[in-house]
């Protein structure tokens, strides 16, 4: 059963930099960074997600494809795996462009669990 959480977007550079200071999990296909939000920033049931791909991923077409694939995977997995009140940044890798979509979801699922465990340990 899906939780009722609101998924927002990270758009400002300082939000991405704040998430980079948080907990991290890196895989061959997807990197994930997460941090607990400040109480004043958003309501409790909100998860904010940002997406980024560096020029190492490839040209603009490859980077946009990687970002679109990350957005689709996050839309499926975040309602079940993301911790409400946290910000996440999904980092595309070179492999994100060409691997089967199920492998992206599996790598992202693993990353959400690792970062979530580290965030909950830090919160408690």
Any overview of this molecule?
Helix 2 packs across helix 3. This protein has a single domain, classed as Ribosomal Protein S5, domain 2. The radius of gyration is 14 Å and the shape is globular. A hairpin with a 3-residue loop joins strand 2 and strand 3. It has 124 residues and is α/β, with parallel strands linked by helices. The model has no long low-confidence stretch (mean pLDDT 88). Strands 1-4-5-3-2 form a five-stranded mixed beta sheet, with helices on both faces.
| SSE string | EHEEEHEH
Q: What is the count of helical runs?
A: 3
Task: List the quaternary state of the chains.
Answer: single chain
With strands numbered from the N-terminus, the spatial order across the biggest sheet is 1-4-5-3-2
| CATH top-level class | Alpha Beta
**What gap, in angstroms, lies between the N and C termini?**
25 Å
CATH topology description:
Ribosomal Protein S5, domain 2
Q: If classified by CATH, what would the architecture be? A: 2-Layer Sandwich
Q: Looking at the structure, what is the overall shape? A: globular
Q: What about the largest sheet?
A: 5 strands, mixed
The structural class is alpha/beta
The fraction of residues assigned to DSSP E strands is: 15-25%
Mean of pLDDT: 88
Strand segment count: 5
Low-confidence stretches: none
- What is the domain total for the residues? 1
Percent helix among the residues? 40-55%
Compute the gyration radius: what is it? 14 Å
């Amino acid at each position: 059963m899906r939780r009722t959480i609101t998924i927002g977007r990270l758009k400002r550079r300082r939000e991405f930099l704040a998430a980079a200071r948080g907990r991290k999990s890196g895989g061959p296909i997807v990197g994930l960074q997460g941090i607990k939000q400040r109480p004043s920033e958003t309501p409790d049931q909100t998860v904010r997600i940002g997406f980024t791909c560096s020029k190492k991923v490839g040209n603009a077409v490859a980077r946009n494809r990687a970002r679109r694939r990350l957005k689709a995977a996050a839309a499926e997995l975040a309602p079940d795996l993301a911790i409400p009140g946290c910000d996440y940044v999904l980092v595309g890798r070179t492999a994100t462009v060409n691997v089967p979509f199920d492998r992206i979801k599996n790598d992202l699922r693993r990353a959400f669990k690792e970062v979530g465990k580290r965030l909950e340990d830090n919160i408690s």
